[in-house]
């Protein structure tokens, strides 16, 4: 009987340890990659907008310094608007992949871009008119500018639209498959939590004693939480030292460690919580005094 009890406890403890490992990964994904709030927050922290703006300005600068200054001014004016549109696109995409919306559709009006670019370009021309416009009355300059700008933006659509129809059949099939897999995650996450609770309940029922149950659970939690926390600490340390050897841009070398730290926060909190719970349960197992039977 004791052998069977020990075998059952060993099996349940092993399954609990394995389930906690899987749950740690699921918890991290749930609060990071599968969380649009996290993605939007990280994009803001990493200041991806400034990096993209710098790349766009450098590309245009190599072709036309005058237009580079105009575009740089327009991007600065539209910074908040661009961030809002990016955030809206991220939330829309997550609603689709997480099954909250049936279709993938994003519509962005480009009128603010056209209006801001027109105003910045006009101000730049007034400040430094090209030879063909120099000396003309402002009304005539404005008329010619309006004609030029209409021709210049003729190919620019008034709205940007993205939906499933924008994708090739092959890419759409892959997106649909990814969406199907991701849609299973919330259910699997809840089932895993329920399974862990059942394992804990099973260990308690088989032990049938506060001391042995708390000691067994405390040992499992502690032996899982402490090594996990140490592994996270080591991973962050070596990741920070190795980034300088990968040949990536200096800006990303400064930003990626912060991204890694934020990505591992849920797992770090999980490991600390388990270790703390393990210590508490072990203390209970030694401090608890069972009631003496009364005669």
Keywords:
mainly alpha; two-stranded antiparallel ribbon; 295 residues; 77% helix; 2 strands; 11 helices
Describe what this molecule looks like in 3D.
- With 295 residues, the chain is mainly alpha-helical.
- The chain is 77% helix and 3% strand.
- The longest helix is centred in the last third of the chain and has 38 residues, at 250-287.
- It is elongated, with a radius of gyration of 30 Å.
- The mean pLDDT is 82.
With helices defined by DSSP (H or I, 4 residues minimum), what is the helix count?
11
The parts where pLDDT drops under 50 for at least 5 residues are none
Largest β-sheet summary: 2 strands, antiparallel
Multimer state: single chain
Tell me, rounded to a whole number, the average pLDDT: 82
Please provide the count of β strands.
2
* Helix residue percentage: over 70%
Helix-strand pattern, N to C? Answer: HHHHHEHHEHHHH
Question: C-alpha Rg, in Å?
Answer: 30 Å
**N- to C-terminal distance:** 29 Å
Class computed from helices, strands and strand pairing: mainly alpha
């Amino acid at each position: 009987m004791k052998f069977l009890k020990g075998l059952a406890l060993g099996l349940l403890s092993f399954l609990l340890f394995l389930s906690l490992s899987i749950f740690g990964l699921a918890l991290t994904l749930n609060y990071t990659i599968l969380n649009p709030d996290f993605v939007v927050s990280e994009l803001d922290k990493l200041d991806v907008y400034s990096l993209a703006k710098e790349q766009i300005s450098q590309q245009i600068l190599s072709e036309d310094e005058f237009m580079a200054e105009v575009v740089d001014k327009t991007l600065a004016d539209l910074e908040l608007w661009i961030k809002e549109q990016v955030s809206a696109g991220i939330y829309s995409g997550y609603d689709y992949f997480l099954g909250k919306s049936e279709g993938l559709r994003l519509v962005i009006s480009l009128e603010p871009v056209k209006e801001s670019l027109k105003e910045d370009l006009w101000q730049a021309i007034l400040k430094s008119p090209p030879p063909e416009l120099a000396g003309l009355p402002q009304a005539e300059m404005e008329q010619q500018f309006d004609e030029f700008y209409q021709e210049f933006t003729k190919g620019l659509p008034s709205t940007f639209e993205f939906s499933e129809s924008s994708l090739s059949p092959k890419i759409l099939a892959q997106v649909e498959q990814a969406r199907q897999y991701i849609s299973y995650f919330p259910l699997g996450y809840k089932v895993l939590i329920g399974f862990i609770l059942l394992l804990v309940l099973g260990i308690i029922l088989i032990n049938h004693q506060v001391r042995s149950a708390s000691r067994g659970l405390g040992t499992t939690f502690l032996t899982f939480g402490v090594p996990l926390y140490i592994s996270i600490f080591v991973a962050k340390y070596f990741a920070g030292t190795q980034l300088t050897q990968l040949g990536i841009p200096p800006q990303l070398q400064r930003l990626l460690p912060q991204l890694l730290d934020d990505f591992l926060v849920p797992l770090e909190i999980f490991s600390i919580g388990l270790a703390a719970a393990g210590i508490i349960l072990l203390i209970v197992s030694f401090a608890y005094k069972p009631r003496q039977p009364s005669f």
